[in-house]
Design goal:
Length: 216
Amino acid sequence: MPSVYQVKEVFYTLQGEGARSGRAAVFCRFAGCNLWSGLERDRATARCDFCDTDFRGTDGPGGGRFESAEALAEQILRQWPRREKGRADGGYVVCTGGEPLLQLDAALIEALHARGFEVAVETNGTQPAPPGIDWLCVSPKANAPLVIETGDELKLIFPQPAAPPERFAQLDFAEFLLQPMDGPRLAEHTRQALAYCQTHPQWRLGLQLHKLLGIP
Ligand SMILES: C[S@@+](CC[C@H](N)C(=O)[O-])C[C@H]1O[C@@H](n2cnc3c(N)ncnc32)[C@H](O)[C@@H]1O
Ligand SMILES: Nc1nc2[nH]cc(C(=O)O)c2c(=O)[nH]1
Ligand code: SF4
Ligand SMILES: [Mg+2]
């Protein structure tokens, strides 16, 4: 168990990505990642160089340093709109980052389950996952090892020339999504992803709904 959980932000929004896009969720964004420092000056040499997220520090809305699984679970519970008797039955929490699997452990998952939450994770797949996760979304990165080869959703950011979809198509996932890489060439990436999905129907196109809606 980490001695302390370092969390950038905790906020209530809609899941904007992947197979469960559109579902109301509390997001718990853990600080820190193993593939990038989060500093712009390091981006060009990082193993993951296209990240769209600020995950440095613990200074975001609802973020902080949490001394126990119970304390962090209570902070997550406070964001859920319908609470009864200290529970959020039917609640949904998405653990992301940064890289959540550097910090998420069985104790936190248990503390969230005890409050009625279903627990989803967004990971780069470079770390083993603790037991108990209800929805595991893996998003492989071209320059990093993939150690998680089974899960609910494989969400590949496209295009990554050194990580073509064919490399992942045989893995044990229920859903396969291509998510166009955001940045100055988003429109071109979206057209390319659309064309790939039309010629390879195992894959479906995933657009980042929260960006279209202008929500966090
Ligand atoms: C910020 S990451 C955090 C979770 C984890 N580190 C990971 O990479 O899966 C959340 C999701 O955003 C995706 N993502 C990051 N940068 C992106 C970009 N420029 N365009 C589209 N998706 C991006 C990641 O691949 C991942 O699926
Ligand atoms: N609304 C919303 N949906 C998301 N799905 C995955 C996200 C992430 O940053 O992991 C994300 C995010 O940052 N916002
Ligand atoms: S692995 Fe995830 S959090 Fe880390 S830099 Fe890449 S997209 Fe961002
Ligand atoms: Mg995001």
